Structures are given as C-alpha cells and as structure tokens.
Amino acid sequence: MACSFRYHKLGTGFNPNTLDKQKERQKGLPKQVFEADEMPDSSSYQDDQDDLKRRSMSIDDTPRGSWACSIFDLKNSLPDALLPHLLDRAPNEEIDRHNEDQRKANRHRELFALHPALDEEEPVERHCVPEVPKEHFGQRLLVKCLSLKFEIEIEPIFASLALYDVKEKKKISENFFFDLNSEQTKAMLRPHIQTAAISTLARSAIFSITYPSQDVFLVIKLEKVLQQGDIGECAEPYMVFKESDAAKNKEKLEKLRGQSEQFCQRLGRYRMPFAWTAIHLMNIVNSAGSLERDTELEMSLSERKGSWSERRNSSIMGRRSLERTTSGDESCSLTGFRPATLTITNFFKQEGDRLSDEDLYKFLADMRRPSSVLRRLRPITAQLKLDISPAPENPHYCLTPDLLQVKPYPDSRVRPTREILEFPARDVYVPNTIYRNLLYVNPQSLNFANRQGSARNITVKVQFMNGEDPSNAMPVIFGKSSCADFYKEAYTAVVYHNRSPDFHDEIKIKLPASLSDHHHILFTFYHVSCQQKQNTPLETPVGYTWIPMLQNGRLRTGHFCLPVSLEKPPQSYSVLSPDVPLPGMKWVDNHRGVFNVEVVAVSTIHTQDQYLDKFFALVHALDEHMFPVRIGDMRIMENNLETELKSSIAALNSSQLEPIVRFLHLLLDKLVLLVVRPPVIAGQIVNLGQACFEVMASIVNRLHKYLDTNQDMHGRNSLLSSYIHYVFRLPSTDPNSPSPDTNSSLTGPGGLGGSVHYATMARSAVRPASLNLNRSRSLSNSNPDISGTPTSPDDEVRSIIGSKGLDRSNSWVNTMGSKSAPWGSSPGSAPETMQAMERCGNRMSSHTESASFLQTLTGRLPTKKLFHEELALQWVVSSGSVREGALQQAWFFFELMVKSIIHHLYFTDRLESPRKNRFPERFMDDITALVSTIAGDIVSRFQKDLELVERLNMSLAFFLNDLLSVMDRGFVFSLIRAYWKQVSTKLYALQNPTLESLRLDFLRIVCSHEHYVTLNLPCSLLTPPASPSPSVSSATSQSSGFSTHVQDQKIANMFELSVPFREQHYLAGLVLSELSVILDPDNEGMFGLHKKVVSVVHNLLSSHDSDPRYADPEVKARVAMLYLPLISIVMEALPQLHDFTESHNQWGRPGGPQGAAVGTSGEETEGEGNSMISQTVAMAIAGTSTASPMSRPSSFLLNSQASRQHGSFSAESSRSLLICLLWVLKNADELVLQKWFTDLSVSQLNRLLDLLYLCVSCFEYKAHVVFTMQGKKAFERMNSLTFKKSKDMKAKLEEAILGSIGARQEMVRRSRGQLERSPSGSAFGSQENLRWRKDMTHWRQNSEKMDKTRAELEHEALIDGNLATEANLIILDTLEIIVQTASVTESKESILGGVLKVLLHSMACNQSALYLQHCFATQRALVSKFPELLFEEETEQCADLCLRLLRSCSSSISTIRSHASASLYLLMRQNFEIGNNFARVKMQVTMSLSSLVGTSQNFNEEFLRRSLKTILTYAEEDLELRETTFPDQVQDLVFNLHMILSDTVKMKEHQEDPEMLIDLMYRIAKGYQTSPDLRLTWLQNMAGKHSERNNHAEAAQCLVHSAALVAEYLSMLEDRKYLPVGCVTFQNISSNVLEESAVSDDVVSPDEEGICSGKYFTEIGLVGLLEQAAASFSMAGMYEAVNEVYKVLIPIHEANRDAKKLATIHGKLQEAFGKIVHQDGKRMFGTYFRVGFYGTKFGDLDEQEFVYKEPAITKLAEISHRLEGFYGERFGEDQVEVIKDSNPVDKCKLDPNKAFIQITYVEPYFDTYEMKDRITYFDKNYNLRRFVYCTPFTLDGRAHGDLHEQFKRKTILTTSHAFPYIKTRINIIHKEEIISTPIEVAIEDMQKKTQELAFATHQDPADAKMLQMVLQGSVGTTVNQGPLEVAQVFLSEIPSDPKLYRHHNKLRLCFKDFTKRCEDALRKNKSLIGPDQKEYQRELERNYHRLKEALQPLINRKIPQLYKPVLQVNSHRDSFSRMSLRKLDI
Description:
This protein is α+β, with helices and mostly antiparallel strands. Helices cover about 45% and strands about 10% of the residues. The strands form 10 sheets. Strands 1, 2, 3, 4, 5, 6, 7, 8, 9, 10, 11, 12 and 13 form a 13-stranded mixed β-sheet that branches. It has a 6-stranded antiparallel beta barrel with strand order 34-35-40-39-38-37. The chain has a 4-stranded antiparallel β-sheet with strand order 19-14-25-24, with no helix packed on it. The chain is extended.
C-alpha cells in the first residue's frame, strides 16, 4: 500500500546506521599511514641493538666530542626530499589558498560513515515491520518410512503413524497412512483397489509440533486384511516362524500364503487391527543430537531393557509451560538435532479388548517405566526403518492436509511428502489466513451386548450425505494409502467375534464450503461373515444412526453417544437428531445411546463459538436483508434486531480468546464496517460507532493481556500490527457491492467487498526480506507538500489468485492500489513480475490487498462515514474504562486512524489537493482535543503508571510523525506545540528526568520523519516565512530548495537558539533546546539523560549525512545551518565533557594559574602513585608566569571545580557530541562561520579553541599494529583508550619535561593500569547509570578484540585512521577560519596563542602522515604571518613547537620528516630574520633534542640524522641568506645536535641497565652545568626514570636539585626576601645540593635571551617543583624531609598571603608528623651493598667500587641474583662470576676473560660523636656517607678460629655524595680499615649481649618470650659455656703486655655489668611467668648462680698497675683507639 513513498526509508527510523550500511559507505577508503603503526622491521632492528649492547659497555666507546667524527657521520647521511618552493617568498593569501586547496582535495564526504554507530539497544523511533500473517506451524519434523519387513511375507500390511502426547492425553496429529508392501503383495488385493492416486503413495510426512515435550510419542499402528480368527491367532505365525528357517517351513508358509490370498479376495475391503509400537520422540532427538549422522538406532527388546527409561532420563530437563506459539520445553527443541535412521525391531500385537485411546495412553505411560509390562510380552519381530530429521525450510513436492500442492512442486508425478495436520496440545493464537474446512470422525465404541440376533464381526460404514437417497453420499472422505484420493464411504476395522468393539479409526472428511440442513453423517453397522458359507451374504446391516451437520445454523461437533436404529431411517430423518424418538422405529436397547463417536472440525469457516457465530450471523443478515433471522432457538425479527445486534457486539467480550484470535481479521473488518456504514434497520440508521469502539478497545486489550509474549519493543501486539499493516482497509465504497455469504469462504470477508484476497493460501516461513524497511504505515507522500502521480488502474489490479497451486511465499505482494511496484521487486508491469516470481519457484506470496477492484468500475460513491473521523470522535467522547482501554492500546487506534486517512485520501483522489483543504474542521478539532487530552494524561500519570505512559507517549509521537505526511504541517506543529507546552509546564514545576526522558523519546520519534529537513525550512531566511511552506516547485527540485543565499543579517541569530531561529526551524529548534536544557550543568537531575539526548542529535546528523538527497555540498551546508547553535551549546557544556586529554595524559590544556585548581583535589598530590610533576603544578606552570602581562583568558577551567562537581559526561556521550560538532563545522558554510567568529568575544573564541583541543584528544588514533614477527603470533596492540605503552612514552615524557603533563598522573595511571577517573570522580559519567565497560565505544572493543579476524582488525584500523585524519582536518579547517578572523581583531595574540596550542597538541597526538603535512603547512603559514607571536609572546609554545618538530623529524615516515625539517628550518630562518641570531630556537631545539632522545625508548637516530642533513641542505641552498652568518650558525647548531644525539644514543644501549642509564643521564646533566635550562631538563628526566622505578627518595632529590638550581638563578634575577637564597637554603634537605650553586666562571647570566626562559624559572615553577618534591618524599616515607621542604615553601606562600595553600601545607605537615608517630619502629628506608666490578669486560666500570642503595629488606641473594642475571645476559652466563667473600680482591689472580662482581652487605657507620645528633631512625638513614662491613679472620689465613686467635677487620667506606642522592649508586672515594684484636672482639660481643639483656628487660610492654630467649642464651645450661669461656680465656690471668691492661679491665667491667643485667632479667622474668613455668625459672636461677660463682674470682681481680696514680696526666684521651692497629687506605 505504498503510495509514492520514495523517501520513506530516509527518515532516521528507517535509516539505521547498521554495520552493513557502514561497511558499504566505507568502501574505497585510503589507508592512512600512522607512525604508531609503522613498526621498524623489528627483528633485524632488535638484533642490531643486542649486538651493540654486547659490544660496547663503556661510556667512552664512541669518542664524544670529536667534531670530526660527528661531521663525518652527518656528511655521509642522505637528506630527505626537499619541499619545492619552500624558500620562495609568496604572498600569504596565496599560500593560504594553496594550503586550502590541498587540504580540501580528496576529503571523505561522510563523516559519520567513519564513526561507529551509537550503541543503542534498539532506537526508539524504529518500528519493526510486523510479521506477515501466515499459517501457523510448530517445530517441523520430517519422518520418512523406508521399509517394513517381517520374518514371513504372506500378506499385505497397512501402517499408520500419528503423534500422541501422554501427559495431555491427546492425539496431537492426524494419521499418516503409508504402505510399504511390495508390488507382488499388493497384487493380492487387486479386485478391491482402484488405481492409487499419487497423493496416497506418500512415504514421508512432515509433522508439526507446537508444544514439543518429553511426553510426545510417535505411535505406529499396523493393520491387515480381515481374516477368520482373533488377532492372537493371526499373529502367531509372525512370532513363530523365523526368516532363517524359511526353507524348513516352506510348506507351512505356502499354506499360509494360500489362506491369505483367499481372505484378500473375499474380505479385501475390511481390515483388522494387528500390531503397534511407539517411539519416544525426545529420546531420538536427544540421542541423535549426540550420535553421528544417520545413526542406526536399533530398538529391539533385548536392548530395550534400559533403553526406555535411561535414555529418557538423560534427556529430561526442567519443563516449563510456555504460552508461546512455537516453543515448548527448552530441552525439547526439534530444530537442530542430527537426522537419525531408526530401526524398530519389536511390535506388540494388538489386544482385541484394549484398542481404545485410553488403553494406548496407559501403555505409553507404562513404556517409560523400567519394568514395563510390555517387556514381558512376546513381541512380533519385524524391521521397520524410519528416517527422522528436522524438516527443511521449503521442502519440495509437499501436499497440505487438504491435498493442495505447495510450491516448489516441479513435477506432479513424483511421490509426494504429506504435511500432517497438527491438533495442538494447547491453544494456539494465530489468525486464520488460509481456507481449511475439515471434519474428523472418530468412532470410539459400540455396545451391541443387548441387541438380539447375531452381530459379532462388526464394521461401521461412515458416509457424508447431502440428502437422504443413497446416491447422495458425497465423495469427500479422504483415502488412506495406495488408493483413490476421495471415497464416498469408509469402513472401520473389525475385531473378530466382539459384540462390543472399540474402534481406533479416524475418518477424515472434506466439508463443503456451505452446509445446508440436509447435510449429515450416516453410520451403517454391518456384520461381516468371515467364513464362506452357502447363501450367507458377505455383510449384513445390523443398525443405523446419523448426525445432522447443522443445528440452528451452527456446525455440530463434539462427543456423541447415539442410539442405533435397527431399521433404515424414515423419510426426511436427516433434519432431526437420532435422539428424537421417531414414531414406529425400532431401536437397539430401547433407544439408549450405544454408539460413542467424536466429531472434530478444523475449520477456518466455522467459528465454533456461540458469541462470534451470533455476531457474524446478524451482520450477515443485515447485509443480505434476510429477516427474520434464526439464531439458536430464537427468531429475531427486524424490530428487535437493533437490541440483539448491540448485545451481540457487547457479548463478543465473553467469547473465548482462541476463536477471537482465529477470526480476528474478519471480526475487526466487520466492526469497522459497522462503524463506517451504519446499518439501516426498519428505516432507521442505527449508530453503532460507540459500541464497536468499546468492543474493539476491549478485544485489543485482551490480546495484549494474554498474549504478551508477542509484542515488539513499543508494546505493539504483533497480531494487531500485522492486521493494520496487511489486512485493514476501508470497506468498499460501493454499498451495493455484492457480498459473499459469511460462511461461504474467506475469499472476501463478508461485506468487505472482497477487500482482502487471500489467494489460495498465504503462508510464509520467514519474514520477507523485501519488507524489512517498510513500516506499518503503508502509504504516505514522499514530500510533505507534493505527491506522486498514480499510474493507470490496470497496473494496479493484480490478480494472483488464479495462479495454479499453492503459494506459500516469502514475500507478500502488497499491492493496495500500489502506485509503486511490489516492494523489493523492480517496477515492471505486474504480469511480468508475477511470471518471474513464479518461475523462481520459491513459495511466492499470495496475500494481495487487491487494489481498486470494483471502485474503478462502479465509480466512487461516498461512504456514509469516514472511519478516521468516527474513530477520533468516539475516542474523544469516550470516558471511564473505555477511554482507559483505548489509552492502554492507543497505538492501535492511532495507526488505524492514519491508515484510514491515507486510504481515504487515496481513494478520493485528494493526495493532490492542498493539505489545508483535505480534512473538515471538526475532524481537526477532534484530533486537537485528542492530542491535548493524551498529553495531559502523560503529564499527570507518568509517576504512577510509567509503563503505560511510555507506550502512550511513543504512540502519540508516531501518530504525529505520520500526520506530518498527510496533514497540514502548521496544524501538526501546533499539536506538537500543545504537547510541548503541557510537558514544559509540568517540568517547570517538577524537575523530573523521567518526564524529560519521555519528551526526548517523543521528539526523537517525531524527528525521524523522512522529510525532517524540509519540515525545518532550511532554505528560508530568518525572517518570518510568508507561507508555511516553500513553493512546491522549488522543493521538488532538490538543490533549488537549498539554493537561496544567506542575506547578511544579524548572524548571531543563526548560531543561537534565538526566537526567530526556533520559529523558523521548528523541530531542529526543539531538538537543540532539549540538548541545551539537559546539558545545562545547573539542571542537576538530568545527568542520566546525557547519553540519550546526545544520541538523538547524533542519530539525526548521521542520517542526514548518509542521505543521498543532501549529498551535494551546498545542500549539506543548508542542512548544517539548522544545527549551527549546536556549536555554542557544546561550548557551554565544555567543562562537563569527558576529559579525553586526561586519558591521553597530556595536560596541555590552556589555562593560566587558575587552572591549577583542577589538580588539587585533596588527595591528588599525596600518595597517589609515583609522582614526578604534580598535575597541579604542571597546570600552574603551563600558564605563562603570573607576572607576564599576557596570560590568556582561560575560559576552560575557570571554575573547573565548580563545574566538575556536576555530572560529567561519559566518554561515549562526549565523543558522540563532539563528532556532531565536527559534522556541523565540516559542512557549514565557511563564510557564515567566519562572520560568526568575528562576532564572538575573545573568551568565547578561546573556549571554542579549548573545545577543538578536546576534539583532538578525543579522536586521536589509537595504534593498531597488526604484523607478524618471525614465528610469533600476530601481535596486536589494539584500540584501547587506556594508554599506549612505550610507543607513546616518547610523547609522554617530553610532555612531562615540558610540564604540560603531570607525570605524576602518568605514573599513577601506569601503576594502576587503568583509566583514571577525572578529578570529580565521574569521568565515566557515573551518573549515566551505565555498565561502565559498555559506555565506552572504543574501549568496549578491547574485550572483543580476541575474536576478531585479522581482516576485521585491519578494517577497523583503516576506519579509525580515516576518522582521526578527517576529524583533525576539520579542526584544522576551523583553525584556519579562526586565524582569518583573528587577524582582524584587536586581541589577536591571545587567540592566535590558542590556535597554536591546539595545533601543537594535535602534533603531539598520533597523527597520520596526511594530516601532518597539512598541519605543518598551516603551522608554517601561521609563523610566517605572525612571527613575533612565537618568538615574543608565546615563548612556551616555541619550546613546544621545537619539540614537536624534532619529534616528527625522527619519524620513520619520510613525508613527515620532509615537512617537519622544512618547518624547523623556516622557524630558524624566521627567528634569525627578526633578530639576526636565533638563540631562542637554538636553545629550544637543543633542549628538545636532549629530552627527546633521553626519554623515548624506540627513537631511531638514523631518521633524525637524515632530517638534520635535510636542514643543512636547506641552509646550503638558501641563496637569500648565503652572505649572512646564518648558514654557519645553522651548521654549528646541527653539529651540536648531532653530538648530543651520539651521546644519548649510548643511553639507548643501556636502556636495560637502570643504574648505568641514570649514570649516563647524570653525566649528560653534568655536561649541561652551564646551561641551566638543559640541566633542569635532564634532572627532570632522571626524576621521571626514578619515579618509574619507584625510587621516590631519588626522584625527590632530583626535584630538590631542580628547585635549588631554579632558586640560584631566581636569586640572581630578582631579589625577593621570601625566596630562598640559592641552594644554601636547601642544605637541610640534602647536603648534596650545593653542587647546584652557580659560582663557576662560565655561568650564563640569566638575563641573556633564551636562558632561564623555561616555565620553571619563575616563582610558580619553583613552588611547583617543591610541592612535587614534598609529594615524592612523602611517598618515600621520608616525612622529616617533607617538613624541611615546606620550610622553604611556607615563606613564599606567606608572602603571597595565600591562606588556602598554607592551609593545605599545614594539613600535609600534620599528616606527615602523624605518620612519623604512627609508624614509629615500622619504618624502612634502604639497604646498602658495596658492589665492586673487576674485569676488562666491564669497560670503564672495571675496578670501580660503588655503594648501591636497594629497596628496604633486600637480601644479599636478591641483589646478587639480579646483577649476576643482568650481566650474565649481557656477556653470557658462563662469563660472569660473583665473588662470594668480602676479602680484598687481587686482580692478578682473576681470569682476565671473565667479569667478576663482588657484593657485600654494608651498614651505615657513625662515629660516637655523631650518634648524639642521629637519634631517630630517620636520622640514622638520611645523609649517609660512611658505611661499614666486618670481615672475621685469623693470622694464619682462616676466617674463623678459637676465641684467643679470632681477629676482625672493619672496613669503613666513604662515598662521593650522601645518600639519598639523585642516583642510586654512588662511587666509593675513600676506604679505611680497623683491625680488632681477639680481646677487643670479645669486648664487643659481651657489650652486645649486655645491651640485648638490658633491652629485653626494660622493654615496654614486656615480652616474656623475647626475655626468656635472651636469658637462655646468657645463662642457659647449654650455653653458659659461651660467656664463661670468654671470661676463662681472657680474664683468667693478667696479660703480660701492659698495652692490654685497659682491654682486660674493660672486659672485666663488661662481665660485672653482664651479671648484674642477668640478675635484673631473672627478677623481671619471675614477675612475668605463670605457675607452669616455676620449675623453668628455678632451673634458670640455678644456672645463673653457677655462672656467677664461676665468674666471681675472675671479675674481682683488678690490675694493680691501673690504679696507681700516674704522673703524666696529659696522656692521650683515646688510648683505646690509639692502641688498636689502624690501617688507612686512601
């Protein structure tokens, strides 16, 4: 029903940015080259590096400073290509023009094709096309019967299959009869069989199971020809004879065969039951799932032991009853199992008295038990082979249950497959779509026990009669197998000699379409004589009964228990029921019911529901004007027809749901008919509008309530939506059109004038592909104001009905007056299309909404009422429950109304008429009232029933969207405005995000209209429009609609949501207002909607972008004009956007000191990770020094704290918003943009620049490396927005050096390995209740990486690369416009500075070569236009630029190098031209190079060397400046750079050796002693390296040194009392700092240009460095040093009266001191080792000794292992040895070819006097320069000996600097040894023991365990040898040498002290122990007394000489030290 619907698919609802579409649009993208992706040929590169490492260890290998060598290298390298015309002087305009042309060439047209579509569940505006109404199938199973063989073959056997559900006790399919007899066996029946119809030869059947369950069995029943004897006798031979014995029993078999032939001749038309078996279906399906294809599943009794039960148990799973139409148990899916071949070997013989279904269910239930009764029976052995498999989608040669052929049916002679009709176990709710009219008669039992006479072998003959004469039997009974299609009679099987038989037959009858009162089923009962006797007839009639088919016009079905008459019934019996006692008839058993029979109808004609029947009958009577009407027992006259009609309408609610659904289409059509054409009853028009509306509402609600499983995401019931879409149409407008009888057929649902033709049968297996894009509205105009022209009526009339055979197609041809060809087919004339489709032979469609059939002939007569008008009216006036019902399902009525409107316009030819005149006023008023009340409902009820309101809101939106296509736009806008007003008023009163969210959905749906752009009047100017729509002609031709030029009006109106803008561009105005409202940070509640509102905008733009109508750039510019205000909205929202620069770790954000606020969110600077330069400081420093008059107004983070408290956007939403912004900037008219930029204030422009800055980070390319290393797996570094590793370290560390990034953050991030949250903690949009992984488009991809193929990854990289390039080019275009704007404004410096900042930032990110060449071109142009900008104002930026250019000079891609070196050369040249030298650039470049080389791991000096050569070449070729000093200066600079390069290359070799690396950096830094800026750079590099390795103390020292350096120069520059006086002030922090003092002769004066100009040489820089130092000390746990640092800082802040900072500092101090107290006794600083290197392999390390500082608690084994491993890897493991002892090394004794390392543990050493000052643990571990280690020895060379010969050597080492220092190993510069004699060793031991005792005794709180341990060691029995032996060795006699007297005395006193301490300890222990340790205490005391007695004599012996008065009093004070042998080794 698509009427000129050309653009329908272009609305956002139909233009989903799907992946396939994206792929389509992404075809032909060029691959962008990114340096990040270019891996050097890594294998070879790595090997070279390793060789280098092995070869050169010494720092001095390459002759540093040999100019000659350096120049030689340079001269020999090759330059890159020079850029032509670089040195020509061209006017700026021309350069700009050239650059622009280059930039604009080959750009990608559609930005959104490069951006991944938003991740939305299912966009709200997308309506799914409803399923085509089709015949219902469950899961389909194909059963093929292959063969049936018995042990003996003596007669034909007939088989049938059917499905039974044991649990439901229901037969769930009709019978499938098949015949597997051989031709020869069949021949035995020749006289009885007519030629077999092909349909009865089927051997395969398709069963449908809607509710599969574990209870379904496939039951196979066998019958044979009737013969004399009961079943048991007849079955006996089958059980007795074996095939193998055939020869033996030949005679018997012959005899049997002979008998059989006789019976076949005589009784061939009768059957008898024979045998049966059953298959448990789910077992087969489940085991087939696990077995191989075509598994033979044997089922014999022997195996059957466990088979029924076990196999079943394995497969039973939880059972759920599902109301769904097609699925039952989860475990019972029949769709995917492997086909299986079954061989059934056992049959059970039928028992004559147990044939009923009841008995069968018992057997089946029993079969599932392990101890089945059946198992005990003797089976009939046979072999039945079946194939069971899932049915194919479109099987060939298929016949329906009605024997119609289903296409494809290529050849009618092929044996068909039968579809078997299902009798579903439970209700199935599917509307009828095909004609089916079948009746199943199941005779059940007969009781002739009380009948006189002989009647034993009874059969029942069943006939369907249409009169009473025997000739009236109709041939409508379906044949079974190998027979004709239809018969006039059917016989039931005979049970031998049974007067009361049960029957199991099923007789299938095809009902005539219309029945009369004479139709009836006649049953005739016969006795069959099996023996052949003389003059006995074959059959004798023994009774008659019948069932009339109609009763009061309704079909009779159900269970009947009928009396049987003994004689033929009399005349005209058929209209009566046999229950009526007819006069003079004889009945069996006194007219009691003796015959049980069940009649079941499967009919799409007979409703079998009294209420529906009554309703349809009345409507039919009205149509036919047949009165009176008989309904049931009533006769309804015309006068009471009205009340009856109304009550029958109301009574429809009482009918069952199942018939209502089955007849839904017809029912709704009739109701519509009654509304539209009110019946005339007795001359009065009866208005049934209200009654019909009410009942419709209630039916629709019932469907919703009970069938809630089949609803789409908008809550639309699929049955109803497909009714509207495919079935509903306005009743024929000719009231006299003939209407077929309601009951006759569905061809034209009665009274609708054949409105819907279901050709033969419509059934479709899947949703037609061709309909995917079509929506439930089938008709609209392509343009709101124009419409298509209809073609001639012939094309419209399509008659498919005549096509032969049955089409079950996959595509419905919906040709409702179709003015376009069927969807999905090319417009050709109908007949051809049809033939083509038939040739394809797929199941083609059949449901045709036929077109203008009668109307075209009869002329269109006006209908009485218009359905949509009546509907609107009824709805408006409804109230109470009816209104509620209609509201619940508003979508249904809205869609009906729209479809009705469109039909009406179409059939009355009004689609051409102007919209204003299309509808009457009252209809418009009704619609207005309706919309207004519904909006009211939405507003008032959204808090109570949100679910209803959500549905209602969407339905209303879709309705208005639809109206935009058919009604006057202004009118629809007024409706939208009415809704808007109501919602806004409510929102104003109540800030509720739910309501706002509803409004967003509404807006999104309305805006998904395909003419959204046109509706917004993009081409009109911002003046009130004269007419509400542009002229038709101009809107038709696409481009002209957009061609009028913008007049020069107040341009701002176009960029702001001004009143004129909103009036003019109504819908766009609404969208943007929503955006700005929700993004407003003060709108607290709306954070959750950020993602939602952004996706609305994103969606619209994305759809415009791909819309072919707007492909022309001028047109696109017009469309972009609708969104210009987006720019300012996003500018406003800037502070809330996700900070992509952060995830990138580059805080190059513009922002003066104010920006600093961001970083200091309390805990930021403290303990958050390994810090280098705190972000705060970095921010602060990033702004030029406060003093400088020119700090840019920083709009961005002005009150960053304030704004960041609000919900910050998720990364995904921000990204979408920014891509929208870029789209507008890309497509908007540049002149318009330029005018607007001119009007913006400086701060606004700066904000715009900040925004562009953010865009650069947001769309930065993430490296995709997809390459294969030798043999390794493809290694992928994927798209993760976290951060790229080493690849980007380069960028990061230089950033750090430049201070634009807080390296602290960088480290923090690295240590946590995750994305940091932004300062407010909501970078992830914590407000946007999202699963956080999911909310990042780019990041999400990480988890999916694993399963992507290489091709996909490459495609992804391709897209990402193009997106990054395009986004950055758009930014570049915008920057160019800003530059043009700025050049005419007064405060251009600030703006240009901003432009430069964005440019530089974009260079810092990963960029493609393509972008970089344009970027460098722009940068060159910028510098040449405003040279003073760079060299005078934005000096920071100059440094930055040099760094970026140099980095690009070392790029691996030659085009990037060419452009970068050109830019760098021009930069020098311009600097030179301004002031005849280029000190600034020289210095900045030198600094940049050193930082670049120092920090980047994979930087290739070869590339940089080439760039340097290129620069030299430019200098040589530059004719203009040849005569000046310029070329020489360039050469000097280049050589100097080259040298630094060579020097730092070495660092690269030692990348793995952290100590060596730091030594090198230290050396290089030392080399820059005279150039403070560079020294600072290198100190900071070192700090960075230390932080990376968690050496916080060292990092802090580097920062303190940096601060001292800055202080030195600052004090020269400005004399401020509160600033530190150079490095002296820092002495307390570290004694090493003095080396920073600037006292040497070659100190540069800081005033000279280019010196100390870095951002650190300012007060703020100093403060920043100190704050970071404090943070690092704090992380290192050195809180005392934190205090010292703050002592320097506090005066500065005090001087600046900065209370806030002071508060923070004092808070930090309190924290630090708190930690000192808290961690007392638990602090650990470092462990120290002496490491000596011996061996020439070590190069200049040979014979060097160092003290290494290692982390606390490092064991000797650890460092030993580390160094041995490290050098082992370098020299080969066998080449390195560790010397195990600590004795002096004699180099001559070592193997010269090996490398030896000696490692000794050392402790800090303090002289006694020092100990006074070093009290705390910190004192003893800070500022350490001397260390000691002891070596025991004896004079004869052993290490250990007896007490009296044990000497000890103490070695004291002094280092060149104090620890901690700026490196972790320091050279030893001095060594002295002290040798202790044995007695001195003893004294030391005893002093140590005594101290231990004293400590343990006085410990608080007391520690009994510790005390007992020490006591045990002092007095315990085992060891009293210890102290006692010492005393006995040294104190037993006075030494002969007077020199030793003092020692003797000292030892004696030690022992005295010792015994005293032991006594104290024992006393203490006594007070601590419990009763259980008393004995132990006594033992200890006994030992103590023993020890004391033994020592007594020794202790009391004094040396008399010592106590004589000595004459010379001036003897040496420290004789002790004089007497020890001291050896100095200096």
